[in-house]
Amino acid sequence: xxxxxxxxxxxxYLGSASFFFLYREFLQAFSLPGFLCRxxxxxxxxxxISTANYIIxxxxxxxxxxxxxxxxxxxxxxxxxxxxxxxxLGLLLILFSLALAYLxxxxxxxxxxxxxxAAGFIYNMRPVRAKDIPFxxxxxxxxxxxxxxxxxxxxxxxAYLLPPLSLLLCWWSFGNFLMVAKxxxxxxxxxxxxxxxxxxxxxxxxxxxxxxxxxxxxxCFLSYLSFAFTFRLQSFFFFTPFLLFFGFLIFRKTLSETAxxxxxxxxxxxPKFAIYTTFLILLFxxxxxxxxxxx
Length: 295
Hints:
The protein is mainly α. The protein has two domains: 1-160, Tetracycline Repressor, domain 2; 164-295. It has twelve helices and no strands. Helix 4 packs antiparallel against helix 5 and helix 8 (165-190) packs antiparallel against helix 10 (206-230). The longest helix has 29 residues, at 32-60.
């Protein structure tokens, strides 16, 4: 069920923070209890849907995980749990989270949460199974980033206020940058066995994956600068070198890693990445006080 991956669901709060950054007047529209209720419930529902997606992934990837040096020890692969009750648990989680989202939030939030579930089906299951198609695998997996952004946005916004496309594209391409880095790490570590674990690796090369990382990074920074220019956010321009350095650190780790860089959030286990990420978060918190939208 991969419950330990709960930090990924915190990504929704980037959407919430962006909404209140761009529409500050709405801060006064929520009481503290109402705000906290939406804040915590939106996270919980996202985590539940993500867990259901992991259950789906675990079941359909059973024939592939046996070729992975770590995943072949998972309980389902080893026959320690059964498919049918595990599938039933996934279905119950889906029904519970969608029903509660429908009752407690707007339709925009409900459909955003439903999109996160749909993205999991498209990524994992046939007839599409995007994870087997080179580059579409990383693109479709990283679409979870803008979807989570929308979940956090619509936890507080009405359906009539939409986030800027440049911000969604920036967050999507950053996720793709990390996913391509993960695949490059797998490709370099698993070598000739890479294609047995992930079908898309049969058509990848180290060069194509490097170019994919570079292209994703360029799209990320260009959309970031477009957002900053559109809303005249001067501090965002000043922060650009710090973001470029962050990208460089991930690039270097990907190319120097002697094992598979399993999950991007595990970067934060490293004190260096944890401290620098905290530094970046504090910088952007400052923008709320430094920048006035459009001025």
